[in-house]
Design brief:
Elements: E1 6-7, H1 12-79, H2 82-105, H3 109-138, H4 144-228, E2 239-240, H5 242-292, H6 300-333, E3 341-343, H7 345-362, E4 366-371, E5 378-380, H8 382-398, E6 405-413, E7 427-435, H9 442-445, H10 463-473, E8 478-483, E9 487-496
Parallel strand pairs: 1-2, 4-6
Antiparallel strand pairs: 3-5, 6-7, 7-9, 8-9
Helix pairs in contact: 1-2, 1-4, 3-4, 4-5, 5-6, 7-8, 8-10
């Protein structure tokens, strides 16, 4: 049976996982990029705060310190007060300390060159002050005016270099602020794009997943409504994930089964109508003949007895058909009752053979019974097992031609075979009914115990289904073997407890 269901490779679970992972990857990428950008901005901010601004502050302090040192030096030259010279020396130490500090902050060769020049100029300035001091003390060296010019030149050059260093640092700050702005603007743009992409992807994934699930379900709903109207012909053909594909496959299978059951129901009604109408027609005609006295007077007694016999047989046939229908209803409702007692199979088999023997004699069919001498008692509902035996024997006689042969056998078996798996421990009795009739095709024998299965256009299709239900309820198994044109063997087991 082929179904037109186009399968999609990914399951619903896999689709959801892939969709969510895609969104998570985009969000993670946005987070990583934002984290990286914030790190760069933080690095620039720290550089401005801890380097450039500190360089500016230290440069201003150096400039002020240098000017202060120059002031103390002038006062010393004028007053010759040792305290001013002491303050001059202390200020020089502060200048040297700040100079060492700023050297550790510089990160460009230009700034380092300026500081190196400042350090050299300051050394020359100190040397000039020392020489001037010695000149004042000895009064036999260079004139004092020359020292004043040199010192002024050194201090002015130091101040100029420091101001240039401040300007360079301010330019670096402006450049870094501009760079930060550009990075922030670019980060805003990228983050916006990633966020928008994540939103669009989430909407698309949600839409595709919803459509993948919703569309097949809507098709299934339409199919169910068609089934409700009794239309079983059309199979569903949808593109869907494996889960819904399995559901659609099950739905198509259900359609076929319902169609098959509907056809079997129609055949059942037709066959039951025939099964009931024929005996009723016969009974009506027989009663009519008896009521209106149409039987010839010469042999009226024999004819009346024969008509009464026919009425009795047809009534029995009616009762059997109705009982089959009632048994089916009770079985489907789970209301079949079993009165289990310990019985021997000998009298039950003999009783069934006696009941069916007149039909065999009429068709000149040989009935043969072969039972083991020591069949143990079994715990069964005798009436129900008789029903199984009657059904199997009547079927064999029905499909066996004249001059044929029907054999019933019974034996005790204690080895396990694939057909006897229902009784996993202990022994069991196997009862078989074989014939040399028309046989059953290989395809049909697989369904022979199903409900409403009618073969060769005879019966209601309920007998073997009921027989299987009864045998299974007793803990046994029932099966059939057959070859077309060579007869059939129906067997069932009953466990021995």
């Amino acid at each position: 049976m082929a179904y037109k269901i186009r399968n999609n490779q990914y399951t619903i679970f896999q689709r959801l996982i892939i969709g969510y992972l895609t969104i998570l990857i985009i969000i993670a990428a946005s987070g990583v990029y934002t984290f990286h950008t914030l790190g760069k901005l933080n690095k620039i901010t720290q550089s401005i705060s801890s380097v450039d601004e500190e360089v500016i502050r230290t440069s201003n302090r150096l400039r002020d310190t240098n000017l202060s040192q120059r002031g103390f030096e002038k006062k010393f030259i004028v007053s010759k007060d040792r305290d001013f010279y002491q303050q001059f020396s202390e200020t020089g130490k502060y200048f040297q300390n700040d100079l060492k500090q700023i050297k550790n902050l510089l990160n460009t060769s230009e700034k380092q060159s300026l500081i190196a020049e400042i350090e050299e100029l300051h050394g020359q300035y100190l040397l000039a002050v020392k020489n001037e001091k010695d000149f004042i003390k000895n009064k036999n060296k260079y004139p004092i005016d020359e020292y004043q010019d040199d010192k002024k030149k050194y201090v002015d050059k130091i101040t100029h270099n420091l101001e240039e260093l401040i300007e360079i640092s301010k330019a670096d700050i402006d450049r870094k602020i501009k760079t930060s702005g550009e990075i922030g603007s670019h980060a805003k743009k990228i983050t916006s794009i990633l966020t928008l992409t994540a939103i669009i992807m989430a909407i698309m994934i949600a839409f595709m997943n919803a459509r993948t699930i919703n569309r097949p379900i809507l098709i299934l709903i339409k199919g169910i409504r068609k089934i409700a109207k009794g239309k079983f012909e059309n199979h569903l053909s949808i593109q869907s994930p494996p889960e819904i594909k399995e559901l659609a496959t099950a739905f198509n299978y259900m359609c076929d089964r319902l169609k098959e059951i509907d056809e079997m129901k129609a055949d059942l009604i037709s066959n039951i109508s025939h099964e009931l109408r024929t005996p009723l027609a016969v009974i009506r005609e027989a009663v009519s003949m008896l009521s209106y006295g149409t039987v010839p007077a010469a042999d009226s007694a024999d004819k009346e007895l024969k008509l009464l016999s026919i009425i009795s047989e047809e009534c029995e046939r009616l009762i059997n058909s109705v009982n089959s229908i009632l048994d089916l209803s009770r079985m489907d409702a789970g209301m079949m009752e079993y009165n289990m007692e310990r019985y021997s199979l000998y009298p039950l088999i003999e009783k069934s053979v006696i009941k069916i023997k007149p039909i065999g004699e009429k068709k000149k069919i040989k009935l043969e019974v072969k039972l083991d001498n020591k069949l143990p008692f079994v715990n069964i509902d005798a009436e129900k097992i008789c029903q199984v035996l009657d059904n199997l024997l009547s079927n064999s006689l029905k499909f066996t031609p004249e001059m044929g042969k029907v054999m019933i056998t019974g034996s005790l078996i204690d080895k396990k075979t694939p057909e006897h798996v229902t009784n996993k421990k202990g022994k069991f009795i196997v009862v078989s009914v074989s014939d040399n009739g028309c046989g059953i095709s290989e395809n049909s024998i697989k369904e022979i115990f199903d409900k409403f299965k009618i073969f060769h256009g005879k019966g209601t299709g309920l007998g073997l289904y009921i027989a299987r239900h009864i045998v299974t309820a007793h803990g046994g198994n029932i099966w059939a073997k057959s070859k077309k044109g060579k007869g059939s063997i129906f067997s069932f087991t009953l466990p021995v407890f």
